[in-house]
Amino acid sequence: MARRAGADGRVTAEAILRESLSLFAQYGFAAVSMRQIADKVGVQPGAIYQHHRNKQQLLVAVLDTHMDGLLAASAENQQGDCTSVQALERFARFHIQYHITRPDEVFVSYMELRSLEEEGYALIEGKRRKYERILKSILERGVNDGTFQLDDPHVSAMAILSMLTGVNTWYRSGGRLSQQKIEDIYTSMVLGAVGHRLPDTHS
Predict the structure, then answer these.
(1) pLDDT (tens digit, 9 = 90+) per residue, 55-102?
(2) Is the pTM of this model over 0.70?
């Protein structure tokens, strides 16, 4: 007999976050009720409140889980010695690979920042800034060693992140271009934006 989600606290907690994310992405945070989430998880509404005091705290948990996963994966991706160009290429490919497989997380993390109250916003925005600093550090390093040519690392970082994250708004698996080719094109554009070109090895 299959284990019910409510039979184990950890399983229930994971299901609550997973189903909340799905519902927030589909209907928007404001339109989703705690009862809807409970019905989707397969538990009584009271079980949700054992894990989260209210819907606001649940939204914070959903976004915080996404940011923690992103930061941990990014830190692992940046391990090892490499040049500024290699670090930027590695970052660009990682960002696309990580986000393109998590469309709901990306959508909710951007669209529902407006729904966060002050404390939750400060927490999530702090972690977003930490991720942004990874890219800014790469750009600053490239400027300092004479590899990159750009006017302002912060503005350049924001532009690059917007461009890379924008892939999620149009990419569909099985389309005309493979994910690998899309990574190549975007990485080439990122490097071109800072004064470098990536050799075409996948034509």
Answers:
(1) 999 999 999 999 999 999 999 988 888 999 999 999 999 999 999 999
(2) yes
Q: Are the beta carbons of 23 and 32 closer than 8 angstroms? A: yes
Dihedral sign from CA coordinates of 132, 135, 138, 140: negative
Q: What is the rounded distance in angstroms from the CA atom of residue 74 to the CA atom of residue 68?
A: 10
Note whether 92 and 192 are within 8 A (CB): no
Q: Smallest Cα–Cα separation from 64: which of 130, 133, 124, 15?
A: 124
Contact 190, 92 (CB under 8 A): yes
Amino acid at the residue 73: A
Question: In this predicted model, what pLDDT tens digit does every residue of 112-164 receive, in sequence order?
Answer: 999 999 999 999 999 999 999 999 999 999 999 999 999 899 999 999 999 99
Whole-angstrom Cα distance, residue 96 to residue 114?
Answer: 24
3-class SS of residue 203: coil
d(CA 51, CA 49): 5
**Burial letters 28-60, b for 16+ CB under 10 A, else e:** ebeebebeebbebbebeeebbeeebeebeebbb
Taking the C-alpha atoms of residue 194 and residue 136, their distance in angstroms, rounded to an integer, is 12
Using DSSP, state whether 106 is helix, strand or coil: helix
Beta strand segments in the chain, E: none
